[in-house]
Every structure is written in C-alpha cells, then in structure tokens.
Write a structure and sequence with these properties.
Helix content is 46%, strand content 11%. The protein is built from 19 helices and eleven strands. It has a seven-stranded parallel sheet with strand order 3-2-1-4-5-7-9, sandwiched between helices. Strands 6-8 form a two-stranded parallel ribbon. The chain has a two-stranded parallel sheet with strand order 10-11. Helix 1 crosses helix 11.
C-alpha cells in the first residue's frame, strides 16, 4: 500500500483555522498513521486565529507523544503531525524595514529610475495601498498580497521552511511515496485569496522543473461563511485599507472567474461556503482577529482527509459537498457518515468523561491521599501503585510494577491529557454555535457542562438511537465499573487514558 504524506499549508487566518480543524480531526482518528506536515503562511504572525491553531497543535503533539511512545495503539491522537521550522512563513521574512508595499518594492527607487515603473506602480496601487502597514496582513486586498507572495523563489531556496518542504517532497517521491499537497484558505479576503493561486502555481512549477511524478496538489477555496459590521473610528475611515464584508461576494465571483483559468496547477479543487453567514467582530488583524471555530472548518478537515485517502482520479477535478437543508447540519450531512460519526462520538465521549469526571477525581485523589481515595474508587488501583500495606497485598500487586500517582511525571501527564480534552471540547462546542445554523451533532449544553461529575453520557449525542433505558444507564459512574474490570496491559496515567478511551467504545 502506498504511504501518502499530507502536506497541509494553511494560508491566512482562515487557512490557520482549517489546519486547527485538521489537527482536531486527526485527534479523533480520521487520518492515517502517516505523518501530516503543517506550514502556516501569514504576513500577520500575531494573528489570533493563527496563535490559537498553533496552541492547539502544541497540545495535540504533547498528547500524541504520550499516547504513542509505547504500549497498545489506539485511534485517539494516533497521527504524527510535524510543523516546519519556522512553522509560520511570512513573505516579509525577518526584515526590519517597514512592512508596506512601497518599501517591499522599493517604490522610491522606482520613481527615481526614470523608466516609468514608478508611474505604473501608481496606476496599480493607490497611495493608501502603497503605504498601508502590512504587519496585520493584506487587509482584504488580494492585489497587494499577490504582488508580495510572488516574491517567493522556490528555485533558489537556502532556508526553511520552504527548503525543508521541497526536500521532504523529493524524499517522498524517491521512496516511492505519493505526496499530497493541500493548500487551504479563504477566497474572499486578502492573504488566502492572494496566496492560494500564487503559492499553488509556484509549487506546481517547482515540481514540474524537478520532473517529480506522483505528487498531487489540491486547493481548498473557502467561500464566504461569515461577515462583520462595518468598522468605525478615525483609523478606519472610508478611505482606509481593510477587509470589507460587503465586498466578499463580489470578490468571490471575481476570484472564481480568475481561478477558472488557473486550475491547471491543481489536481483537485474543493469549494466550501455557507449561505447563512456567521457574525464576527471586525478586526484589522493581530491578536484581536480571533474568530470562533465554524462547522465549515470541520468540512475543511474532511476535505483534506478525502484528498489524502480517496484522491479523485485525473486532473482538474472540482469537488463539491451539499447538505439536506439550509437550516442546519445533521450527522447524515457529513461525508463518510458512518466512520466520521463513530470516531467523533467515541472520542468526544472519552474527552467529556475525562474532563468532567476523571480529571476532577484524580485531583481529589491528590488532596485525599492514595489510601483514602482508593477505598471508594477501586478502579484507581488498576493503574497506580497502592499505598504500602493491606491494599497492596489485597490486590496482589508488586509496588515497583505500578507508577507512583504522586510522581511529578504522572501529574504532568494528567495535566497534558486534561488540556487536550479541554481544547478539543472547546473547539467542538464552538462548532455547535454557528449563527443561523442549527448544528445537530452534540448537545452543546452537555459539552459545556464539565462541572457535573455525574453527568450522563447518554445525553451527549443528538440522534442517539439506543433505547431510553440504555441511554439513562450510560453514565460516567458506569464507566468506573468498566475500568474496575478492565484488564489493561499499561499502567499509570497513559494506561488509564487508553483504558477509558476503550471502555467508552464498549457502551
């Protein structure tokens, strides 16, 4: 079987949110065991969406390292995800000069050259566009971003991350692997709309010049799915350079006409948008541009999965997806419904049980002490060393075979797994709250209620077809009984997490 590597390149704020969704989808086991390689592209390296995606990836990687180092394999966080160094590429690099279009193209020199280039520059860009500070991104202007992005020279690379990415692709092809290069971003803004076609063309030309066979390139164009109220204030007057929500549809139409003549660079094109636009707060950029996750990004991750696992044959294939109603999303609207639902449900049950019950229980164990806590939580002794004396003899365990619960290493593992659960549930909960759409996947009230240690798992999933009695008996307390009887080959916190993940499947 060919081992395909997915190279996921997220361009702009929307692209970063798509990579965040890919990491979350990987955590539930929707991708393969093969490595995914991430590269973020943004002139605004402090973009709030980008920062959150990078944080989620760090949380994911800490947990992946714990779960996959030794012992039994599980589907949860099984996929290795590598970020290039640096993990964010800015077309401005590490320049200390002003990040504006005039400085980037040495506008003053063009004016003094006497060959008309300065006058041409004046025709193409207004004074405001030439002088706008681009450290917040390309301000919803693809014409600005395309000019800057085109400065990337993939034929004369000496530094990472692009040099590393090209080396890895060449290595994959040399090892008879089939690289899958997946670019994603918005089609209606600035960074994504300018970077998607430009970077796609540059990568295509580089692979062609190297005579690389077997690599496939896909592009995910995210169409409008949000809006924001017009900005106010002296810094965003009518002549200011910033993204304008009222122009998103017009920008999209113009971009699609352009891309129709540029699709020779892509083997597969995915189009995703939403009729019901969510309302976001206006932000020019930086850390205030931090928009809540949206169900469109889950579809983005599933598009990346489709490209990796079910690459459409031929070239210039356009993939669309639809739903049964414009009013909302149900399980039947998700691609590959059976597997997607099963893995999302199983992992969500685990994350919810751990965050709402197991983590608080382990905190109680730390306060009460192992001896006292294990008297009423006998499942605890299947994974941690009992206190010296009667309990150790009662359970016939050799103390050296079981980790010490109070050891700093075990406590850090508890913290890392809990952080992953909270981050995943935060992302999933936000998907349930999209304006204008009723997302009928999970009960958001349950997802948000992590303080109820006796919460019923049977109330978590919308469309749970089990009989009423089974759902009512599906509680975290019942999981405790399952853990008591679970014969785990792994001990300690990692053994407990894997055992909980498995018994969540059994109910």
């Amino acid at each position: 079987m060919v081992q395909n590597t997915l190279y996921a390149i997220g361009i702009g704020g929307t692209g970063a949110k798509c990579l965040e969704a890919i990491a979350q989808a990987a955590s539930v086991g929707l991708f393969t065991d093969n490595e995914i390689k991430f590269l973020f592209v943004d002139a605004d390296e402090t973009n709030g969406n980008l920062e959150r995606a990078r944080t989620s990836l760090k949380v994911y990687n800490r947990t992946h390292k714990l779960i996959t180092t030794d012992g039994e394999k599980v589907s949860w966080v099984k996929t290795p995800i590598k970020s290039y160094t640096p993990d964010v590429w800015s077309p401005f690099g590490n320049t200390s000069t002003n990040k504006n279009l005039g400085s980037f193209f040495r506008y003053n020199n063009l004016q003094q050259g006497g060959k008309g280039l300065g006058n041409l520059f004046d025709v193409l860009y207004t004074k405001e566009e030439r002088e706008a500070n681009l450290d917040v991104g390309f301000r919803g202007r693809p014409a600005i971003g395309s000019a800057v992005m085109s400065g990337l020279d993939l034929d004369n690379l000496e530094e990472d991350p692009w040099a590393g990415l090209i080396r890895d692709i060449l290595s994959d092809v040399g090892s008879s692997k089939a690289p899958r290069i997946f670019l994603c971003g918005s089609i209606f803004g600035g960074t994504g709309a300018s970077g998607l076609p430009t970077l796609g063309r540059l990568i295509y030309n580089k692979l062609k010049s190297e005579e690389i066979q077997g690599a496939k390139i896909a592009c995910l164009f995210v169409l409008p799915y949000f809006r924001f109220s017009p900005p106010t204030g002296k810094n965003t007057a009518n002549g200011g350079v910033y993204a304008r929500a009222e122009q998103f549809l017009l920008n999209t139409e113009a971009a699609l006409r352009y891309y129709n003549n540029q699709n020779e660079y892509f083997d597969t094109v995915y189009l995703l948008g939403n009729q019901n636009l969510s309302e976001y707060n206006f932000s020019i950029g930086k850390n205030t541009q931090r928009n809540e996750p949206h169900f469109i990004e889950l579809y983005s991750a599933l598009a990346a999965r489709h490209f990796l696992i079910d690459t459409p044959p031929g070239k210039n294939t356009v993939v669309l997806n639809s739903r049964s109603s414009t009013a909302g999303i149900t399980w039947d609207d998700l691609p590959n419904t059976t597997e997607t639902k099963a893995k999302l449900v199983n992992t969500t049950r685990f994350a919810y049980a751990w965050a709402s019950n197991i983590a608080p229980e382990l905190e109680d164990a730390k306060k009460e002490g192992v001896a006292r806590f294990s008297k009423h939580a006998t499942w605890f002794l299947n994974f941690y060393r009992p206190q010296q004396g009667g309990l150790g003899k009662l359970f016939n365990k050799k103390g050296e075979d079981y980790p010490d619960f109070n050891d700093a290493t075990e406590q850090q593992k508890i913290t890392d797994i809990t952080e992953w659960c909270q981050d995943y549930l935060r992302w999933l909960s936000d998907l349930q709250k999209c304006d204008g759409d009723e997302i009928q996947l999970f009960q958001d009230a349950a997802l948000s209620n992590l303080k109820d240690k006796g919460a019923k798992l049977g109330e978590l999933v919308i469309g749970d077809n089990r009989d009423r009695n089974t759902r009512q008996e599906d509680t975290v307390q019942r999981l405790h009984l399952q853990l008591e009887e679970f014969a785990s080959s792994e001990k300690g916190t990692v053994g407990l997490a894997k055992a909980l993940y498995k018994v969540c499947h059994l109910l």
